[in-house]
Every structure is written in structure tokens, then in C-alpha cells.
Amino acid sequence: MSDAIVPYSPRGRARAIKGFLGQFLSYGGAQVGLVCLVFFLVVAAMPNILVGPLQTAINATGEFLEPPSSQHLLGTDEVGRDVLNLVVHGARISLTIALLATVISLVIGTTVGMTAGYFGGPVDVWLMRLTDFFFVVPSFVLALVITPVVLEVIGRGRDILGFRPSLFVIIVVIGLTSWAFVGRIVRSQTLSLKERTFIDRARVAGSSNLSIMVRHLLPNLVPQIAANGALVVTGAIYVETSLSFLGLGDPLQPSWGTLLSLAQRAGAASAGAWWYLGAPGLCVLTVSLSFVLIGNALEDTFDPRRRVIP
Amino acid sequence: MNGGRTSRHFGRILVRAIITLLMVAVLNFFLFRVIPGDPASLLLGGARISVTAEQMKAQRQNWGLDRPLFPDQAVDYLSATLRGDFGYSFKFRGRRVADLIVERLPATIVLVSLAQFIAIVCGVMLGLYAGWRRGGAVDHIATGASLLLYSTPSFWVAMILIVIFSTALGWLPGYGAYSPGVSTRSLDQVLDYLRHLTLPVSAVALGLIGQYVVVARAAMSDVVTEDYMVTARAKGLTGGQMLMRHAFRNAMLPVVTLITLNLGYVVAGAITVEAVFAWPGIGGLTVEALNARDYPVLQGVFLLLGASIVLANLVADLAYGILDPRVRQ
Amino acid sequence: MTGSSQDKAPLLEVSGLSVDYGLKGVSSRAIDSVSFALRAGEAVGLVGESGSGKTTTAMAIAGLLSPNARVSGGQVCYRGNRLPIEDDAAMRPHRWSETSVVFQGAMNALNPVHRIIKQIAEPCMLKLGMPRGEATARAGELLELVGIPADRGAAYPHELSGGMRQRVMIAMALACRPSIIIGDEPTTALDVITQAQILKLLGELRSQLNLALILITHDLSVVAESCDRVMIMYAGRIVEDGTVAEIFAKPKHPYTRLLIDSIPNPANGKKMIRPIPGDPPNLVNRPSGCAFHPRCPSAMGLCATDVPSFDKFGRSRVACHLHRSSQEDKVAAHA
């Protein structure tokens, strides 16, 4: 990855970024993934403009479990709410949870991995032992037992940062339990970067450990973090959807997983209400697939083995 | 030849497994103490039943709750856990958590092992073939389909299966494990059970197939570019001989690891699918426990999942050591 | 072996062989009009930089061209019969039974999950139809032949040193009693002492079993110790072909001379490796005329426009405009 070392001149950096984008966008998977993702981000950004405020049992506009019609493009649920309305608002909840959880996970993973790799010795040993634990025990299993306990402790009271407390808890718990994968990759990358001369140069020049890590190591770790970040989002979506489906979501701010949970409780599958469970499911599928495709394309772009000239 | 090194390797693996299991237990211990309310009343079945002060005191003494948290309580907790004593359920009043789990485990094991078997046969074969004939029609279809399955939550697949095969076509039941009224201890009952099993097994298997195709294909496409495959070709082996004698075993190394790891993860993964079908296994128990905030049961399930994951990791490490002579060093 | 008449006819004859590689619509010529003959028991070195076409030449002879390779001209004859080198399945009976390859002994030429005895016995079972026991016994003999105790056969490749693995590769190459062995950089990853041992072993086995040897290397000094003849390749063409003695004493092509100069020789006080100036040629966009002219210290105007012909001088051949003047020699050789 010698060519991945960040060039010092701004022009060189701009050229490197341009070359990277050109290569990345040449993958069909990346194009499909980006288009889908942009679509969902736009939808998530302005649900009220697109479909009006979130419907509840009180202001529901339709009959119970109506199949799709010109009035309700995706039909209605068991209390007469418009499924399109629910799904569009769900996009905002689901994407926010997944992206925020990913940010937490990347911050922890990068910090732990970089610290372990940079300092080595007992710091490395103990941090890696911790990482091993979170690597072996999947986020879903940990979240399954931690989330209800934390919910009970903090109670279901006031909103935090505009989120119902249960959603906030889910974000934090997913973020805290899904960083191990990133931690491992960042550590191994840090180990190889540490041997490079530019780190020695910085050290000789008297830079502090923190400034070496932030100014010299971190920029060179960005490719790895970005490629794996896309996969972390997929994992976060999976965990959030599963937890919400098991009833740990919040019915007042329903994510796609919560909608599926409501559909399940209403017996949508045995009632043949395919639109009710189909719409949120397809959204989950499309968004995860987009991130998988983007992640694969990023990995292919960064992977030096795939380059014509190594 | 290198027995010392080998046993040290296995020793390290074992130590790591024990540490992980210990951390699961410690997490369980602290989560349990964090919950508001008196642990003694929790142990007696939660605040939902009234208990006398004497009962509370007895329970307190019995569990050593009047002693310091560490080390006394922690040690007691660990030794109770080791004995298989996870306390009593809130929801199923007075029933031991361990009994509940043992009762529900067989249904999950049947579901999960059947799904694993089908996924291994279909997914691994398909993935290996796609990697061997990379760029062919089978490869394109298998890769596309597995990417879709990989991105789809299996409980949603389960719901779709119900809509199609149960509600619309009416071929298979989509709820529970038995139909009411079918006579017990007869061939009818076995057939009825199998019919109930079909959709849940399919839902779990489809998710696994997606994973196996992706990994087996990647492994095989790495192997075909290896130098020893050129050697095999130079030796005048036919395509089939190259595949069976040289490519297969090398490609299976990462696949076997994934399969054994999945022995642990698949139980957790099946929880949501069991919830969809109201399958009377661990997943069903978990959902009931979640809804009733039945913490002792939840923690028992957590310990079970943790143990099965750690065990599967242990088996995966050992299996890899046996299959790949390089690791034994 | 059967008679003196067969000894005269070459064992292997390559004439005008050209091979192209197609990659995403761009075609590049890996070897261009390569011609040479190999007699039974003869040892020939094939020397050149990476990308010079030496490996493609060897792989074509062994019938191991990759699927994206295309033979665009010429042929390869073995014992007077044309080999179907483009037909993977039709080449199968030839492989290993007639021509075997000693690959670079780096770890991966041997399958990491099988014991070495099994890998040596495999061709005996599959190609010679020996039962397992007999094949294993023969594999043991072959191991002894290359200087490894037969009981080491139970080892896995990673348990052996680089030199030992190379010996295993040689034992494996001998399994079906071939007439030609191709050594593809067989000593490259080894230290100097092990390198010398392996070359000595190859030399001994060659005279013992009357094997023809094609040694592919980028290292001219390896050839000096173990070959009768050398062929120097550059940009897909043979530029000089002659006996080891002639080439080292009187190199004709400037490229050959530079190659010989670049060998470090402590005896002469030459301790530093002198690299050849300039970049290796681009095969997709090959230089006009003599492909070496951009790097050649003696290049003339003619070199950039005309492809030099491959002319015969006594027992050697060279393709260089510097040696066109001696047309008389060629005529004399013809007469």
C-alpha cells in the first residue's frame, strides 16, 4: 500500500482523490449502491414534505389492512395507517440509527486498534483481549441482553437528542458492541504503517504520540476504515432490525424493524397482507445491499493486489 | 515430531475460550445487579409476586446478598452458574431457568442442525463450483442470489415464505410445531411435525446458504490461482482430478471454519425466525422472556448462546489445526 | 537411447513459435518467432529479464499455456511429431510423462495439505497406473535419489527447508521418467550454497538418466555452471544462442555483453552489480527495429528501423546489426 501514503502537497492529494473516485465509480456495484443510497437519504431527509406527518392510530387515513390502491400506494396497516407514510418515516429512523451506531463503532474501533498497534506491549495485549471478546460474541447477542436491562435502568422517559430513549439506547448498544472487527483491521494496518520512515521522521522531529497518531497515522487509515465502515453499517442495520423485530424498538418512532414487528403481531403474514410486511423488508434489503456493494467496491479500489501495476 | 508445540497451541486456544466464557459470566453478573429493585425479589420471581419479609431474608442469606459484591457474591454467582443454576423465571412462576432451557433446546437443535445440513450441501457445493468456474453462468447467478440472501434478514424471508407457501398456496403450515388434534405417537404426527418444520428450516437455511456461497466461492477462486494448481496441471491431471485432489481440500479450510463457527452463531440467528413461526425453541423462549422482561431467563439464554459460541470457536480452531498441517506448528 | 539415428534428430524442435496474450481486448506478443532445437541429454539455459518471454517459451513446450494465450505462428515438434500445444486436453498425456517442470521451490508449488510422499507418488498412480503401494515405494526411491531419506516422505512441505523442497520438486519431476525437464528458476529463492547443491544434483541426474534440461533463469552465472548451451532472450525474441564457452568468452550481442558484465565477480575485483541502464521493454508497445536499441550502447540508425535477422556464425547464432558484416561466415556455414 505504499502508494496509499497521503501525499503532502494539496495538489497531489487532490489528484489522488480524483483518481480514487474515478476507479471507485467505474464499478457497476458502486453505481447501483450509490444511487439507491442517495434515494433513501433524500427520502429520509424530508419525510414530512413527501408524505406528511407520521400517522398514528388517531390520524390514520384508511381502512384496516387495505391492499395497495391509488389512494394508498403501499396499502394500509391493521389500524388503517398508510404503509407508505410509515415506511418513509421509518427510513429516517432506521438510517439514523444505523449511521450513528456506525460512527460510534468506527470511533471506538479506530481508537482501540490504533492505540494497541501504536503502543504495542501490554497495552496491545490487553486491548486485543478485549477486542477478541467482542469479536467472538456477536453484537446481536450482546445487544439482546444489554438493551432491555439498560432500558429498565434509565426508564422510558424523556427524549434524548430528539430520540426516544429506547432508540438512543439501541444506537449506543450497537455502537459499543460492533467495533471489534474494525479494531482488528486498524491495528494490523497501524502495525505496518508504524515501520514506515515518515513515522520515524515525525518522531525524530519531536511530535507527540497523540499528534503522530492523529496527523500521520489516521489519514493513512482512512481507506481501511471507509471500506469496513460500509460493512459495519450493514451489520448495524441487521442488528437494529432484528432487535426492533423482537420488540425492543419504539412504536412511537417506528423503524423498519419495528414495522415488521407490528406486522408480525398483527398477523400480516397469515392474513396475506404482503404489502404491509413487504415494503419495510424490501427497504431493509435494498439499503443493506447498497452498503454491501459500496463496501465491496471500496475494498476492490483500495486493494493493491487488484491493481494493474502493483 | 512437534507434540510439544501442538499441545501448547491447543492449550492457548483453550485458555482463550475460558477467558471469553468468563467474561460472558461477569457481564451477566453485573447486568443482573444493575437492574433496579432488590435482587432478592428478582430471584424470587420479581416484584410481581408478593413475598413475606422472612422469605426475603431467607433468600438474601441463601444467595449471600448481605455480603460484599466482590469477591463473595461474584464467586457465589460463578459457582452457581457452573452448577447450571441460573435462578428462577419471573414469567413461568417458580420454574428453574435451567429446566426451561433444557425443555426448549431440542426444538432449536432440530431446526438449526437440519438447516445447517441443507445449507452445507447446497451452499458449499454451489460456492465451490462458482469459484472453480469463475465468470460462468452459474457463478453470476449464484453470486447475485447469495448477495441478496446475505443482505436480507432471515426473519423477513420467513415472513415471505409464510405469505407464499402457507397463506397463498396453503401447502404448508406457518405456525407452531404441531397441529391440534393430530393423534400422538403415530406416523401422522411425525409427518405433521416435518410439515411444520419445512418453512422454518428453509428460512434459516437460505440465510446460511448466502454466507456459504460467498465464502466457498472466494476460497475456491483464491485456490485456483495458487502455484500448486499449476503444478497439478503440469503433472497431467485432468480438471476433475485437479479439483478433487488439490483444490477441494484447500478451498474447504476457510469454509469449515465458517461452518463450525456458525454452529454457535446459528442458534442466535434462528431466534427471530423462531419468533415468526412461534417455534417452541430457545428463540420462542427468548421472545417470551423479552416481552415479560424475564431477566433470569434472558440471562440464561445469553449464557447458553455465549457458551455455544465459545464452544464453536474452540471446535473451529481445533478443526483448522487438524485440516491444515501448517497451523499445527 | 534406441539408436544412433535418433540421437542425431533433435528431441524437441521449436520453429517460428509466436505466442500472444489477450487481456481485455489488448493483445501483446509474449514470444516472437522463437526457433531452436534440443537434443536428448542436452542442457540449455534460457536467460532473460522478467517479461523477456523465457517462461512463456518454456510453458509452451510443456503444454501449459494459460487460457488467454494464443499461438499465432510456428510449431513445437517432439520426437518428430507436432505437439498440440494449444489443446489443453490433448496435451495431457504428454505432460509429466515426456516433459516435466521443476517450479520455483517457493512454498506454494507443493500442495501445503498433502504429505510430500503422496505428492510424488500421485503422478506414478495417475499417469503410470501403478497401484498405491508400488507408487509409494517408487516415491521413496525417488526421494533417496535426490538425497532425502525416504522416511522424510511423511513430512509436509512447510516442515522442510527451501533446498529440501526444491529436491522434492526434482524427485516429483522424475516420477514418470520424462525425457525433458524444465527448470523454472529452480534455485532463485535459495542461498548460494544450497543453490550450488541443487545445480550439482540436477547435473548428476541429467547424465545419470540422459535427461534434456531447459533451465530458465535471469542469472547468467547459474547457466555457466550447469548448461552446455545458452539462449539469451530479449523482448520475446532469442537474440543470441551459443555454447556456454563461446558466449562467455566472446559475447556478440551488446545485451549479452551487458548481462555478463553485470555478474558480480569477486575474483576480478568486481564486487558491485552493474545494472543495465534503461527500462525493460513494453510488450504492448514494442520499440521498432531491434527492441533493444533504446538501451543499447552501440545502437546505430539502422537499429531503430530494421529488425535484425537471426544469423548463424559457426555454432552460434545472433540477431544484431553489428554482426551483419560477416555475411561470408553465413555463406560458408551454409556450404
Short account of what is shown:
The complex is a heterotrimer of chains A (310), B (329) and C (335). With 310 residues, chain A is mainly alpha-helical.
Features:
heterotrimer, B: 329 residues, mainly alpha, MetI-like fold, 2 domains, 12 helices, C: 335 residues, alpha/beta, Rossmann fold, 8-stranded mixed β-sheet, 4-stranded antiparallel β-sheet, 11 helices, 12 strands, 23% strand, globular, disordered N terminus, disordered C terminus
Explain what this protein looks like in three dimensions:
The complex is a heterotrimer of chains A (310), B (329) and C (335). By secondary structure, chain A is an all-alpha fold. Chain A has a single domain (26-51, 74-304), classed as MetI-like (MetI-like fold, Orthogonal Bundle). In chain A, 73% of the residues lie in helices and 0% in strands. Chain A contains 13 helices and no strands. Chain A has helices at residues 10-25, 28-45, 47-51, 83-119, 121-136, 139-154, 165-177, 180-194, 197-204, 209-248, 256-265, 268-271, 274-302. In chain A, α2 crosses α4, α10 (209-248) runs parallel beside α11 (256-265) and α10 packs antiparallel against α13. Chain A is globular and about 75 Å long. Chain B has helices spanning 3-34, 39-43, 53-63, 69-82, 97-132, 137-151, 154-168, 187-223, 227-234, 239-277, 282-291, 295-323. Chain B has 329 residues and is mainly alpha-helical. Chain B has 12 helices and no strands. With 335 residues, chain C is an alpha/beta fold. The model of chain C is unreliable at 1-7 and 328-335 (pLDDT under 50). In chain C, α4 packs parallel to α6 and α5 packs across α6. At the A-B interface, α5, α6, α10, α11 and α12 of A face α1, α6, α7, α10 and α11 of B. Chain A: It is a multi-pass membrane protein. Chain A: Pfam families: BPD_transp_1. Chain A: The chain crosses the membrane at residues 20-46, 93-121, 133-154, 166-186, 217-239, 273-298.
